[in-house]
Amino acid sequence: MNTDQAAPLKESWWARLTQSKYFIYILISPLFLVLLAYVIYPFYQTFIQSVVGSEGAGIGNYKRFFSLESTANLEALWTSIYISVISVITCAIVGVTMAFLIERYEFPGRKILSILVLVPMALPPLVGVLSFTFLYGESGIIPRALQALFHLDSVPFSLKGITGVIVVHTFTMYTYFYLTASAAIKGLDPSLEEAATSLGSGRIRIWVKVILPMLTPAMVASALLVFMIAMASYTAPLMFGVERTMTMQIYLSRTNGNLDMAATQSTILSIVSIAFLIMMRWYQGRRNFQNQSKGISVHRTELRTPFMKYLSMLLSFIGVIILMLPILVLVLISFSVDGEWTIQIIPSAYTFDHYIALFTDERTWRPIWNSLQMSFVATIGNILFGVAAAYAMIRTRFKGKALLDILIMIPWALPGTVVAVNLIAAFSEPSVFSFNQVLIGTFWILPLAYFVRHLPLIFRSTSAALMQMDQSVEEAARSLGANWWYTFRRVVVPMAFSGILAGTLLAMVQGLGEFVASILIYSTSTMPLSVAIFQKMYAFQFGTACAYGVLQILLIIFVLFISQKLTNGKAGAVI
Amino acid sequence: MKSVRLDHVSKMFGTAKGVEHVAIDVKPGEFFTFLGPSGCGKTTTLRMIAGFYYPTKGKIFFDNRDVTTLQPNKRNIGMVFQNYALFPHMTVFENIAFGLEVRKLSKSVIKEKVERAQKLVYLDKYGTRKINELSGGQQQRVALARALVIEPDILLLDEPLSNLDAKLREETRLEIKRLQVELGVTTIYVTHDQTEAMTMSDRIMVMKEGVVQQIGTPQEIYNRPANHFVASFIGESNMLEGEVMEISGSTVKVKVDSDLQVEGVLDTAINKIKVEVGKSVKLSIRPEAIFEGQGPNQLHGTIQLVEFTGVSINYLVQVGSATLKVMIINKGNQILKRGDSISLYVPEKGVYFINE
Ligand SMILES: Nc1ncnc2c1ncn2[C@@H]1O[C@H](COP(=O)(O)OP(=O)(O)OP(=O)(O)O)[C@@H](O)[C@H]1O
Ligand SMILES: [Mg+2]
């Protein structure tokens, strides 16, 4: 037994401080400081720029934005909303249909389809759009193949403009609907349906009266999410040349040097995004579609008539092709010799050089190395902040929790374009938060952007892990004599490890693929991977661009696989 | 082994009351139990002793040392949690060794102590098992070993048996008591199960809504409950209220109604209660203090309900306006039926006057 404990307890100022109920505020102040410095302050600077401007203070910029004389901005706002609404509808149709087919019906090819259905998640936005232009663009493989096959004068169809954007959105974002809908369908108690049938309801009636109402919460949540992401979409409009969207307008205003207007547009887009974020949080707080009865696995309906069987086989075959094509085409082109592919349907000459060059040629290796470094730095920051914030959020009590939660989620809701504009507004000049340095044009600005954009990832995965961990385990460690720090190291971190690691890997790959903010603020000395892909694309070095893309996809698949293993298939919760 | 003293300790959660004015003095080596219904503040009091809550008012002493605001990790306590709170990422050995590692003992000493602790709880062959590969009872024993291996000054247990099934609960109860007696460690035990409290404890504190009702040995609590609540919470009891008719010496005669009059002995030395002729008074009669046949406090009633448990025959008997629970030990007596009339008597010692 410890005899040294016989000494009387000293009521030192330190002891009194640490036992004060205000001590927690000292502990969490760094979290708020980080958010203040890198989320609020940049946002505020942008807002100030939009109202102060170069020609005197006032709301002139906002008047100009909403003026009916030059309607470019209003048109952009309208187009963005239009694209987003249509995207929500198409994603909902595709996602929910897929979820129902896969969860409720047994047909040949179901297994493979149920795995491949998540492929779009493995496509970084830029790479996805890239493969779509290769496949379905004006000189894309499919239109040209059809033209050759049917001896047409011109290509029968091609993706461009707003249609192109919506198709790409549908392909990349239906997974949000798919994931929530299939979770909800798994949670649906089949006996409810059976009960309805036994009461004499017909199929359609069951759908309208029983199934759809139960799916509504999941649908509303996904719809809000897809709308938000579609509003923020930048890559698709850029590649399909749709200039009248909010994100493109911001980009154009900046490149034209109209900084005040860029700030105004950013502020307006931020307000829309944050409004949606708050709506989503509010809705998530109310929704509740958990399974009430346990242990019932959904039984799948088998298709009986041979005709239906063949039809379903054909359809799932087409589905698999559509899902795989984007990746296959990237792989194909990554082996093509640059500059040789002009009017042929598919590239004519192949080589392995691009892959060798990736790792041996200093110029092609450079962007990979830059991205690795910058993403690594950002991820370290995300781990420190995310784990601390999650711990504070889950394990301590203080006033202002809801505020902290919203502040952490805001960067996730803000379009990358806006994050970039905010950072430019804040750190083009020295400030306290940048230790009196100008960050724009240095190495540090991109890691900072990645840090801000991916702030919620580790926070959320760690919170989820901590929430499952019983607090009494920590108390047990304390009662055994471990101090707070020892407990944190030996008990909390190991127990939350899978959550922390899943978030970390995700933040790392997202950093490696980040394009939207990067394109606005990179400097040539630290050009990241995604910007390099973009430039190679415009220099017609398709092979190299696609080799970069394949590399990214491999990384993402690897990470998704690992986090699936770590979280026992609950990786969806992280996104 | 240390004593634990709570000096009028209160805990408020904001404006909500946790516990009020708890004053106890647990002797070194004593097995002391907090007993009470859910939400009465047992855990709150225990957590203040452990250091997870600080009292709003009052002080806590281990021996003569004021530990009121000492951090939990500096108190040298062993604590067993209701859900065991084992470290799921560690093996049985690592779990038990945790507290010793914190104390920076050498590897060989740790190994020796952990192995001895494992033997103590019959888990010597399970050192390399992961926690999720153990049964509930085994996990419970790991938690116990982990708390005991650090040779705590005080052992705190918060409903350690509530997650076990009935059979295992009994076994583990005996196990805990055996270890406590062998090691002689001062133990504070929290439960809402009166059987556990009665069988294990040296002394029991009965609580209700954050207020201490009675502190005493199991016999005192059972035979001389301080009030209505204690009498009805511990064991079964017939609670009656009537008018005092006559006081002669220490014998008090009470009329519950015209068919039910009882006489009891009031020992004012242990039972501080005022009785006056013509005033009303409350009394408690345990079902097993009522006998079939002829004797003092003779009663006659009609049987309403019969229950045969094996050990005993339980009757619900209507006597005047009151319904009495009666327990007759089964010695092969004839079992009466509903509607039969029955003669009962209550020895004077079986009548106990109580406070409000
Ligand atoms: N952290 C807390 N914040 C607010 N109120 C609390 C807190 N902990 C306990 N209480 C309240 O204090 C009272 C006593 O709670 P306590 O947990 O001590 O009860 P208990 O006797 O251990 O009950 P049980 O047998 O259910 O565990 C309850 O009314 C409870 O609601
Ligand atoms: Mg409790």
From TrEMBL, chain A:
InterPro entries: MetI-like, MetI-like_sf. Its main location: membrane. The chain crosses the membrane at residues 22-44, 76-101, 113-137, 157-179, 210-234, 262-283, 310-333, 372-394, 406-427, 433-452, 491-509, 546-563. It comes from the Bacteria. Residues 77-280, 368-563 form the ABC transmembrane type-1 domain. The keyword Cell inner membrane applies. It is found in: Cell inner membrane; Cell membrane. It holds the Pfam family BPD_transp_1. SUPFAM superfamilies: MetI-like. Signal peptide: none annotated. It is a multi-pass membrane protein. PROSITE patterns: ABC_TM1. The keyword Transmembrane applies. Keywords: Cell inner membrane, Cell membrane, Membrane, Transmembrane, Transmembrane helix, Transport. Belongs to the binding-protein-dependent transport system permease family. This is Iron(III) transport system permease protein.
TrEMBL record, chain B:
Transmembrane segments: none annotated. One of its GO terms (molecular function) is ATP binding. Keywords: ATP-binding, Nucleotide-binding, Transport. Residues 4-234 form the ABC transporter domain. It comes from the Bacteria. Gene3D superfamilies: 2.40.50.100, Nucleic acid-binding proteins (2.40.50.140), P-loop containing nucleotide triphosphate hydrolases (3.40.50.300). It holds the Pfam family ABC_tran. This is Iron(III) transport system ATP-binding protein. InterPro entries: AAA+_ATPase, ABC_transporter-like_ATP-bd, ABC_transporter-like_CS, ABC_transpr_MalK/UgpC-like, Mo/tungstate-bd_C_term_dom, NA-bd_OB-fold, P-loop_NTPase, Transp-assoc_OB_typ2. SUPFAM superfamilies: MOP-like, P-loop containing nucleoside triphosphate hydrolases. The lineage of its organism: Bacteria, Bacillati, Bacillota, Bacilli, Bacillales. The keyword Chaperone does not apply.
